[in-house]
Amino acid sequence: MPLDAHQLIAEFSKHDWCISGRASERLAALGPQAIEPLVVALSDPDGYVRAGAAAALGDIGDHRAFEPLLQAARNTGSGWTEDGENTEAQVQAVVALEKLGDRRALPILVGLLEGAVVDNHCLAWYVIDALGTLGDGSLASLLTPLLNHGDIDVRKSAAAALKRVAVE
Predict the structure, then answer these.
(1) pLDDT tens digits for the chain (168 residues)?
(2) CATH code (residue 62)
(3) Of 28, 36, 57, 99, which has the most beta carbons under 10 Å away?
(4) pTM of the model
(5) Are 42 and 124 members of one domain?
(6) Cα torsion angle, 138, 142, 148, 154, sign
(7) Boundaries of domain holding 118
(8) Are residues 70 and 107 in the same domain?
(9) 51 and 2, same structural domain?
């Protein structure tokens, strides 16, 4: 008997990236019927659950998830985490927003970048990538200073994003 969306979402709480990846793929395969429970899971206190839900929603690609994904991208979580799962949840929400391709995400992504370039370089890499995908030449003034950032991966992401927005 195939697992339903709620059973698959419960797999995320096992805190195993391999299990979560498989569950996310299976949820994405369920398509629109998984959207509602996945949107609810974006508010879970467990970062693993939020990350898996965001990844599945990105793969489903339904724009009904846009607003909840924006909220999830801003959710930094709270309390102790075992291995950066709150950042991973934000990253997966950003990646999902990038996959949706909705430019309305740009102001939120710009806001996220402002804090992330200071204290969360991993998140910054993904936000910069999403800005490069969704943005246009108007973002050059925001991205250009990042070519001198102290983190090499921030610099690489900024260079790649600048190339993409310059093509627009």
Answers:
(1) 356 999 999 999 999 989 999 999 999 999 999 999 999 999 999 999 999 999 999 999 999 999 999 999 998 876 555 568 899 999 999 999 999 999 999 999 999 999 999 989 999 999 999 999 999 999 999 999 999 999 999 999 999 999 999 865
(2) 1.25.10.10
(3) 57
(4) 0.93
(5) no
(6) negative
(7) 103-168
(8) no
(9) yes
